[in-house]
Amino acid sequence: MSITNDIKNAFIRRDNALSQLIVLNVTVFVLLIVLQTVFHLSGIDASYPNLLRQVELSSSLPVFLRHPWTLLTYAFTHLIYYNGFLGGVTHLAFNMLNMYWFGRLIREYLGDRRLVSLYILGALAGAVVFLLSYQLAPGFQARIGATMVGASGAVLAIIVAAATLLPDYTFMLFLFGQVKIKWIAFVLVIVSIVGVNGGNSGGNLAHLGGALLGYIFIKQLQAGRDLGRPVQAIGQWLGKVFHRTPTMRASTNTTTRRTSADGMAARTRNPEATPLQEEVDIILDKISRSGYESLTKEEKQKLFKASQE
């Protein structure tokens, strides 16, 4: 099977958001390397920055207003153009590995749609902080025109969201052993704060914008408010536009007979339904016997749903 077919198949499944985000980031990275090579061989290297201007976020307000889509495209773009091949690969690998580790938790407990919502909202929050910093902070005025690429702000939103949702969940880290993810998130936030004083000040501020969004997202979700609904609504609309399904005919009698049974089955399968106290007690007993990691995906979702009530 060809690489293009593998990529296509990754996007066919509707319950594969984490893989799709990673594949999209890697695909853009490889595509930009190929285009840079083509530009070089064609003797038009000077035109390559014009191409990058279409995807990277500029701190210059006039440039941004001419390229408003970069408010989001920058978060899917990793480059070797500025930092060399090793720097570009390291940047991509660090972001994708962190998104895979922490994104699995978000996907498992909150579902694919909220994972995508977190990524998109984290990217937007990082972009807004980046732009405002250069427009309002006196220390940035001399550097207006700097650009930003990378998924770090969006990924840090996912990391902090996971740590807010499951602070005592542990990862096994080389040389450190088992570490609670709240401490991993804390260290990454501190690194970004320290980084504000370095050469990538605007980028690190964008990371902090994403981190704040991740924290607020989970706190609002626990309060019963899903900040990702606008993103999900847009995604559903785009899905209908690009995946139109043919109209199916069904007899009135068949539809009437199946309505009651289908409704009951849907309620049985619906993980969003409020779990009964008996179900919660059984789940808690299972945790006390075998530990939290022994729960199934459905049991974890039920436990999270019960915590919101």
Automatic annotation (TrEMBL):
InterPro entries: DUF6576, Peptidase_S54_rhomboid_dom, Rhomboid-like_sf, Rhomboid_protease_S54. This is Rhomboid family intramembrane serine protease. It holds the Pfam family DUF6576. It is found in: Membrane. Signal peptide: none annotated. The lineage of its organism: Bacteria, Pseudomonadati, Bacteroidota, Cytophagia, Cytophagales. Residues 67-217 form the Peptidase S54 rhomboid domain. GO terms for biological process: proteolysis. Belongs to the peptidase S54 family. Its EC number is 3.4.21.105. Keywords: Hydrolase, Membrane, Protease, Transmembrane, Transmembrane helix. Coiled coil: none annotated. It comes from Hymenobacter aranciens. The chain crosses the membrane at residues 21-42, 79-103, 115-136, 142-166, 173-195. Residues 250-272 are annotated as: Disordered. It is a multi-pass membrane protein. It comes from the Bacteria. SUPFAM superfamilies: Rhomboid-like. One of its GO terms (molecular function) is peptidase activity. Residues 277-308 form the DUF6576 domain.
